[in-house]
Amino acid sequence: MKNQPEKKFILSNLMKLGLPVLAIALFLLQTAFSQQLNPGDGVRITAFNISDKISGDYLVQQDGNIQLPYIGLVAAQKRDFAAIRDEIAEKYTAIYRNPELTVQPLFKINVLGEVRTPGVYYLTGVEKLSDLIAMAGGETQDANLKKLLLIRGDKRIDIDAEQFLKQGKRLDDIGLESGDQVYVSRKRWLTFRNATVLISLATLVLIAIQTF
Length: 212
Description:
Blueprint: H1 4-16, H2 21-28, E1 42-47, E2 56-59, E3 65-68, E4 72-75, H3 81-95, E5 101-113, E6 119-123, H4 129-135, E7 143-152, E8 155-159, H5 161-167, H6 171-174, E9 181-186, H7 192-211
Parallel strand pairs: 5-9
Antiparallel strand pairs: 1-2, 1-5, 3-4, 5-6, 7-8, 7-9
Helix pairs in contact: 1-2
């Protein structure tokens, strides 16, 4: 990733050359994961100076195409996201004058375990781990954030989520990929809270036995 002074220098040169706003917007856009889109993934388009309804989330169909307003089908299968993004930008530039828009990838991630609303969520990669947990309704009181499990096919990767949350790292720092499963594990059953409940129950049982 380019450092900030270098990015500012390149951006300044782009503006001096009189390149369209779209070109500058695409330069500034940071794509999250350098990978291909799969069926079920998608793109998020945000248009700033176009009155037609273009902004929205559009999913990759099973045939590998994305249906977009006013420009039709864009092939996504076996193509890097950068190529898809550039084609979308070029097609909208052909029908609108200097369009200001961003095109972001949407990667499908399954969040499981000790969260309040487990399920499938779509991420661009600029989100932080705290954002992902918030999307899933937040962690339960039994969640063990020191042991988050990343499941990718046959691989199992342990992640200390507490450290990522403290450091405010983004999801692409973890290296999430399309189709990954994120499992928030449960604390060991015998926690202090559970032990207190057990002691209280045992006390009640002893009282009941002595009473009868």
